[in-house]
Amino acid sequence: MGEYLKETSVFQTYIVGIIILIIFYIIKRPRIAANEPPLVPYTIPILGHTYNYLFNTQKFLKECKEQYGECFSVYVFGYVVTVVSRDSLSEVLINREVFELDIFEILPFNMIFENVGDFGKVAHINAKLAREKISAKIEVCTPVIRKYIVEGIDKWIGDCKEPKEFRSIWSLTNNIIALPVANIMVGEEAASHEDVTKSLGDFAFDIGPLGAIPPVFSFIHPKLHEFVITLPLRFGWNPVARHRKIIINQIKPVIEKRIKEKKTLGKDYKPYVIKDEFDALEYYMSQPDFDYSKLHYYVDALFVLTFGAIGTTSGAVTNGLFDMAGRPDCFNELYEEAMMIDKECNGSIGFADVQKMKKLDSFVKEVLRHSDDTLKRLHKVISESYTFSNGYTVPKGRRINLYVNDALKSKDFYGDDADEFKPFRFVNENSPATKVDRNYVVFGGGKHACPGRFFAIHEAKIIFHKLILRYNIKTKSGKIENKTYLGPSTLPPRGSLIFENRK
User: Fold this and answer.
1) What does pTM read for this prediction?
2) What average pLDDT score do residues 77-103 get?
3) Which domain of life is it from (predicted)?
């Protein structure tokens, strides 16, 4: 009798579990209106397309587009995502009043940068700074970039009379790029402290793991995933806190010194500048509503700015080094151009000399085109709804993901060899790496395209130029290294590079 009751209890438990799963499935089953992009059918209840989205991304999305057209929706991690391809992608990028970049879906920036508050205001200030005081003044900044890139190469790579193997290439390039960026952002006085440049360079890597946590709890409710990944922050652990303390300790006396001089000298005060241009600290201090008591706010704003200025550029340079090292013919041709330009400028390259690097510019653009991110820039519909030019309508709150690889590898635009890496594809095409269009969306599009792209490309070309002249670089494997795939995104290859002095 006891055994019978035990088996009955187990059976009842199974029944209750099945009922709960059925109810959960009914509640979570996506509902698509008649005029919305078609929802791709799926066979696994609850999970939907999540497996293919994570582990078979490129093939899965390519097949979806071939079968369902320009716009389609998939069901991943418990919510519907509409994927827009090449012809509709630009509509998302240019209509900011409808589509908002969903940065909080990727990382809890509002809790990480707890002193910012109004991200819209900070984004506006930083965009203006990047556009008017950095990208527009690259010629002024070039000597600083060149000086500190050379210093960084000497420090972190150095003399390679005997071949040296370097394993953490992304970390290596990040350290080098952090030097010129730090000097331009906080000025040479504050950046002379090694811990300042290290913090500005490292903090993006420190917060990165938070964004790498898959939103598995979103199957239950999206807010639950947000709650789980922010638990460490809620209990006082913030990966930015240590870096914030370092930056404040070093820039506080610099700012106090400048404030004192402003009060003492009045109209005779001369801003601290890089030649004729403000550094970022001076720019923040020049704002009409600058308030020294809110120093934490400006430091967090600085971190938001450098988050993109250092980490993304160093990632692109790392990809480029592997692309170059695995293609000896390409490397040799870039070396010939570098030698010619170096001879013309007697080793002291300026803005005009960088502009002459046509082959290198084409190479950099091809590196960026082959980032191999399948999807990028998650957006959210913030208006009541939006109807694309193809007739499909997406409702308010819908997540929109951009099928960037469909644009970057478009055979209609780039030809039948669009999937092939051709380093000098753009040499005679009047198509520099900074130029955005509907098929080259690395930096976004329209008037909202990344304002710092001119500085980033300029800096990347200088570091490539210096490395090409100084070293022979090859992959340890002797082959072209593959990137690391994380679902629809990629990270630079994890292999080793061998550096050796040029004879």
Assistant:
1) 0.89
2) 88
3) Eukaryota
